[in-house]
Amino acid sequence: MDPVTSRNGGAMKALRPADVGPAHAADDFLPRAMRFARRARSAAKAGSPDDAALRLYQCALEHIPSGVMITDARAADHPIAYVNRGFESLTGYAREEALGRNGRFLLGGLLGQSGLDPIRRALREATGGRAVIRVICKDGGVRWTRLAVAPVRDEAGILTHFVSIFEDIDERVRMQGELARRANHDSVTGLANGRLLLDRIAQAMAGANRASRKMAVLSMDLDRYKRINDRYGHARGDALLQVAAKRLAGAVRGVDTVARPGGDEFVVVLAEIGDSGDAQEMARGLQAALGEPTGVGESCVTLTATAGVAVYPGDGDSAEALLTHAGFAMDQAKRAGRGGCLRYHEAMSRPDALAKGLDLEQELRRAIAGGELVLHYQPQVSLRSHRVIGFEALVRWMHPTKGLIPPGDFIPLAEESGLIVQLGEWAMERACRQAAAWAGAGLEPGVMAVNVSAAQIRSGTLVATVRRILERTALPPGSLEIEVTESMLIENIEIAAAALDELRAIGVKIAMDDFGTGYSSLGYLRRLPVGRLKIDRSFIRNLTTDPGEASIALAVIAMAHSLNIEVLAEGAESEGQVRTLRAHGCDAVQGYFYSRPLPAEECERGLRGDRWQNAEDDARSDSEPAVLVVDDEPGVCNALRRALHGSGCRVLSASGAREGLELLALHEIAVVVSDQCMPEMSGTEFLGRVKDLHPDVVRIMLSGYTELDAVTGAINRGAVSKFFTKPWDDDDLSRTILGALRDWQQRQQRGQVLTSRL
């Protein structure tokens, strides 16, 4: 069928019915609908002897959520003879607007979609068929549906009608599209990530070959970024990366690609250049674009970047080689002085660097055998009981002379050298021994989670290794959880499925790590014995401030629970994130809010002292709803406090939008009063986010006369409930706020009464 186009212009794979999850509604109801059609026809011939049964069937037909359409196969154009309420709700067309028309009217300009082929074949051959297709609704919107078609025959076997069932899967498909987009894009800047970058380089190389031209890869590293990040914090560091990304993206041509593989590194793929001199000239132009002064906090900084260039053909014959060589050139340029730009040459493939890598590999071999590797453990905390329910084991390398070597430096080396299997077995046995030791000491550590690599799965020995380790350590199988990643499963789906099924059969738990960053479909979740999804930290980072990211995380929670899979969120760093996750049913969290990864001794002290128990955390720190005032001028907040003094209402204040959103996640807020002019984002944007994240909160805007156009637009979009112009009347504003507070309380009480009745 027609591909779904992603935001970056790439194409997603064509959807098949199996790609979008179970089809229970259509599968269960279609046979019943056919029996109803036959029964109705027979009853009509016999004078309706079974009216009660027919009314029952018709009532069921009218009230199922799926759209039902029955067409008359005896007429030349198969006119629609019946639609139910589900059809009306799905398409927006009333029954009288659909009757007598051919079902093609729902397709408009989408008649060419290849998903229709099995449906056309079913109509032509008078058989059943199913497909995933797009339909055009009355309002012009396009919705994804799962369509099942079946013929209806009379007692003589003659075809009389077709029954079609439309199941609305639009939200599910769009969520998968967003997950796929997230798998290919950096969560901070929205640029292509490392995965998509390699694909874009390969495409540019193919284009250069076809046109007998050159292309180039630029590796650019922001100078002094770590110093800025350390001084101003990660939030402002991320904002600086976003500024750099926007400037680079605005300075390249439409055929070029800007990517952020990670850290402070950007890569630009120049799809078409005349010669290598053009590439260096364009690199200098990009450096100039970055050089505009940028505000960070109360300071102003000037960004500079060092660049390295690799040109194809000549500097590498693969995407990986070009990227590596551009990085070599950038490293050399940094040593020569920041802000420079060099083109790659062979001497940069430094023998000393290669020798260093080989030396590190030999040292890693010795470290595995010699006790230099240690495990740290990060607790996983239940959002229901507020107790530790498990730990994730994480490898650390304490080098005798180099100190702590980060996992990012030695794990890739272990994978390249084949040491990852040996390293993985060492980590699993050490973690299982530790879990058994804690349990033997009368502690309750819960489940020990251990990561396994793709190489361990490919080896075919994973199950035997797990059995052997469990036997050696006397750890019950149910106390071990194996963590696998989406990308690992896709690369080895058959081998992985067999191994995981066997592990689950002996009682070992299975978790899918970094969910949302790979390409896995819901079909994989149904095929594999996954008991827990771990939402990747990139979905949690802006949970309390970004409605788009929040909707993805919350949709994953709902989807997993519908499949009876538990959900653990990684990277929870604030109380607001934890409260939001708990409010939406997330089962557990792991992150710095509770603890960083710790040595075994500190974990044991924590288990003995209930370090991570936080029973009161479930209750709000406040019992009464509050009014939140958001304004960067303290005088405005103080004035509103004075205006509400004596009313008995609690007033909280925030100096900016992000602080306000965090307070909304922490407290029971009934009314938000916001200024329009704020440094981080405008009041209308802030209140729009409040509307999406906390729809029950009453939103009041304070604005000057010069801002009325923006406020009017926000009111029309529903972001602003009420607004006051400056200067306001204290009595009038107080009455409005207190009235809104009473309205909010009444709505909450009605909701509680309704819930108790249900």
Report how far apart the termini are. 44 Å
Strand order of the largest sheet: 13-14-16-17-18-19-20-21
Instruction: Give the fraction of residues assigned to helices.
Output: 40-55%
Rg result: 31 Å
Report the CATH C-level class of the largest domain.
Answer: Alpha Beta
Unreliable segments (pLDDT under 50, ≥5 consecutive)? 1-26, 615-621, 753-758
CATH structural fold name of the largest domain: TIM Barrel
The CATH superfamily name of the largest domain is EAL domain
**Can you name the CATH architecture of the largest domain?**
Alpha-Beta Barrel
Largest sheet: 8 strands, mixed, barrel
Number of helices: 27
Helix/sheet category: alpha/beta
How many domains is the backbone divided into?
A: 4
- Principal-axes geometry comes out as globular
Report the average pLDDT across residues: 81
Strand content: 15-25%
SS elements, strand count? 26
